[in-house]
Design goal:
Layout (H helix, E strand, L loop, with lengths): L1 H11 L6 H14 L4 E5 L2 E8 L2 H10 L4 E5 L11 E5 L7 H5 L6 E4 L7 H11 L5 E3 L20 E3 L20 E4 L18 E4 L20 E4 L18 E7 L7 H5 L8 E9 L6 H14 L7 E6 L9
Parallel strand pairs: 3-4, 4-5, 5-6, 6-7, 7-8, 8-9, 10-11, 11-12, 12-13
Antiparallel strand pairs: 1-2
Helix pairs in contact: 1-2
């Protein structure tokens, strides 16, 4: 354990590795030491959740009580030193004053739905807890998050996936330290100047596909994009991808007929996207002339995709002959 722990420290000091990779190594180390146990869905292991043995949980609870606390309906007193709070109560009204006193609080995770009208409640909480880094809500019975969330200038993580929120505050772009945002809102309701969230690493918008974000190329730390639609419009050019070299997983680039030629294709610097595993390059119009065919080939040559994706697809939305390279 000691030798492996030393190796982990050495890896974490490697500036070429992402914080996600380092964190994954630590999780693997905790699993190998039986601190955590994987969760099986059918016969497959899920990487979204882990369990802790009851005996280990019973030991960890009292040891970490001053820093980590789970608020249940049968617990009224919260240590003032608490930094990380999970909440599993039916109503927070009776706990509101006690939570507002937690000046060291960094994390709020709401595990169950509340019976409260939470808009005013959370407005008061957020005004008093301006040092929060993590806010995870599983329930919110209003369609819009209060503007007071934008006062959490240190916020890194905002998860609204299982709420009814369909609109984010207009001043969300002022949360310059935000690294994770997940929500079921539709892309068209993203606030203006969204590209100012330059530290954003994970963006999950599940209400209507990945939105078209103007000047998305400023989000150079983003790791998932899904689909990028090229437009002949300022802020949506193919060169927006130039410095987005942290992209990983799957990427589908559509509307490539909007690219003017090989030089513009080269500006995407796809060969630098070394973390991509699946890349789709899609034209959404049939070629109508020999000149279009020649330009099509020049653009394909200029795109210069990275050599390592397991799957590389070329095609149009009207063709079914996407080729495995």
């Amino acid at each position: 354990m000691g030798c492996r722990g030393t190796n982990l420290v050495e890896k974490s000091c490697n500036h070429n590795r992402s914080i996600e990779d380092v964190g994954s190594d630590y999780i693997d180390e905790l699993i190998s030491g039986s601190f955590f146990q994987p969760v099986y869905v059918g016969k497959e292991i899920t990487t979204d959740a882990y369990t802790m043995h009851d005996l280990l949980h019973d030991l960890a609870g009292p040891l970490s009580r001053e820093d980590c606390f789970r608020l249940d309906d049968d617990k009224a007193e919260i240590p003032l030193t608490v930094r990380h709070l999970s909440i599993r109560v039916k109503s927070m009204i009776q706990h509101k004053q006690n939570i507002c006193k937690l000046q060291h609080l960094r994390t709020i995770i709401c595990l169950d739905p509340l019976v409260d009208d939470v808009c005013d409640l959370f407005h008061v909480l957020l005004q008093n807890l301006n040092k929060l880094r993590v806010l995870h809500l599983c329930f919110y019975n209003r369609s819009k998050l209060p503007e007071s969330v934008c006062e959490l200038k240190h916020l890194r993580y905002l998860n609204l996936t299982t709420t009814s929120i369909s609109e984010l505050p207009g001043s969300l772009y002022t949360l310059f330290h935000l690294q994770f945002l997940s929500s079921h809102i539709k892309g068209k309701y993203l606030p203006g100047q969204f590209c100012n969230l330059r530290k954003l690493r994970h963006l999950g918008i599940y209400g209507g596909g990945m939105p078209s974000i103007p000047n998305i190329g400023r989000l150079t730390s983003a790791q998932r994009l899904g689909t990028f639609g090229v437009k002949r419009q300022m802020g949506y050019e193919l060169r927006q991808l130039r410095n987005m070299n942290e992209l990983r997983g799957s990427l589908c680039i559509t509307n490539l007929e909007a690219v003017t030629g090989k030089e513009e294709a080269l500006e995407a610097a796809l060969h630098q996207k070394r973390h991509l595993e699946d890349l789709q390059l899609i034209w959404t119009e049939e070629n109508s002339s020999q000149a279009d065919d020649i330009q099509h080939l020049e653009i394909r040559e200029g795109l210069m995709p990275p050599p390592q994706p397991e799957w590389l697809h070329y095609g149009t939305l009207f063709e079914n002959d996407l080729t495995r390279m």
